[in-house]
Amino acid sequence: MVERLTIDHVGHHGDGVAIVGGQSIYVPYALPGETIEVAPVPGHPDRRRLLQVDVASPDRIAPFCPHFAICGGCAIQHWQGERYRAWKRDMVVETLARTKLDGEVDPLIDAHGLGRRRITLHARMGTHEVLRVGYTAAGSHDVIPIDHCPILDPGLSGALDAAWALAEPLIAVGKPLDIQITMTDGGLDVDVRGSGPLPPAMIATLSRLAEQHRLARLTRHGELVLMRTPPTITIGSARVTLPPGSFLQATVAGEETLAALVSERCKRAKHIADLFCGVGPFSLRLAAKSRVAAFDSDAGAVTALQKAATSTPGLKPVKAEARDLFRRPLMPPELRDYDAVVFDPPRQGAEVQARQLAASKIPVVVAVSCNVATFARDARILVDGGYEMQSVTPVDQFRHTSHIELVAKFTR
Ligand SMILES: C[S@@+](CC[C@H](N)C(=O)[O-])C[C@H]1O[C@@H](n2cnc3c(N)ncnc32)[C@H](O)[C@@H]1O
């Protein structure tokens, strides 16, 4: 059954939203003001599939990737840049207003830079025993075969070829694979997950492929298969050898932008705690001027950060510790040691740690977030504890998606 709808606005996941009888109906790839024809999506009464745009928005543009709207990687390539950027910033403004948080929201900073420096590809055996290597389809677990992705940093060139080549022999083991590929100073760093125990002949095949594709390192479930060159990244004046699978900001420009905003907001602090520090994109830059204590639950990341800090001349002391901050947040007596705290939790936010920060006397707290909803919850806790939210800067690292990062400063 074909239905006609008019789109009211774009929702927080990038879908067009039509209001029908007071209910929101979500239509991917539709834009505000458009009149469209849609079909039902079985099992999803509030969703529709776009069949045809009858009256197009003047802001509609042609997507630049042939896989767009099939591949689930990008939600938005069909919207004029200024409108898209305003929508991203407005998501932050609206979420803060809903949580009754006052504070100026700065203009959105674009941080796509040269593109994504890490991808995770999926390899599956499709029908008729045909191998598929690519991203999952929009709204399903089907793998869309990909041989080209225009949003990648040129430093990832060769990544798709390497993934196809590694998947070919491995898929014979019979399990679906996830292949994470990261651009490093030494070349591509590849970690393959999903295959079971491998016979020595298969390890030899993988090593040969790693040589052939000039990979910096190949690991399976984090275990070394072959290292040709250490997979390092440069952070400030330091070089960090990446542990397989540790968190990394999606683009080089994203990391540099977030780190610059963090450094600016802590510029007078002499001793800083960096909570949820990862491999140290903030710590290793902050340590140019301040002593830093860094905490993260990922022991590999913390060890890599400590090693990089210790072997970089000219940095102030950095002390990195593996600690689960959900179970064991830094408490007010420990927080007395610092004159600024930075916290950059995963998507679920840091509610437990925020409560302890709210009970502390730290003069400056800088929050970095990849989820505006959990940020708003944690910011509310800080404000209720007596902090004033001074600035919120949205950062667009995941261009073409609905994801948004932000950096905010709180003082007391
Ligand atoms: C958004 S990343 C930020 C990392 C780093 N600040 C960066 O910019 O690369 C979130 C970090 O939180 C860490 N993490 C996740 N759960 C944690 C927990 N319960 N306790 C401490 N760290 C945690 C992850 O290992 C990851 O490094």
From TrEMBL:
Family matches, as InterPro entries: MeTrfase_TrmA_AS, NA-bd_OB-fold, SAM-dependent_MTases_sf, U5_MeTrfase_fam
The keyword 4Fe-4S belongs to this UniProt entry's keyword annotation: yes
Organism domain of life: Bacteria
Catalytic residues (positions): C370 (nucleophile), C370
Transmembrane segments: none
Family annotation (SUPFAM superfamilies): Nucleic acid-binding proteins, S-adenosyl-L-methionine-dependent methyltransferases
Gene3D superfamilies documented for this protein: 2.40.50.1070, Nucleic acid-binding proteins (2.40.50.140), Vaccinia Virus protein VP39 (3.40.50.150)
One Gene Ontology term from the biological process aspect of the record: rRNA base methylation
Protein keywords: 4Fe-4S, Iron, Iron-sulfur, Metal-binding, Methyltransferase, S-adenosyl-L-methionine, Transferase
Binding-site residues for S-adenosyl-L-methionine, renumbered to this chain: Q249, F276, D296, D344
Pfam families (UniProt xref): tRNA_U5-meth_tr (PF05958)
Molecular functions per Gene Ontology: 4 iron, 4 sulfur cluster binding; rRNA (uridine-C5-)-methyltransferase activity
Statement: the UniProt record of this protein carries the keyword Isomerase: no
Family (UniProt): Belongs to the class I-like SAM-binding methyltransferase superfamily. RNA M5U methyltransferase family.
Protein name: Class I SAM-dependent RNA methyltransferase
Species for this entry: Bradyrhizobium sediminis
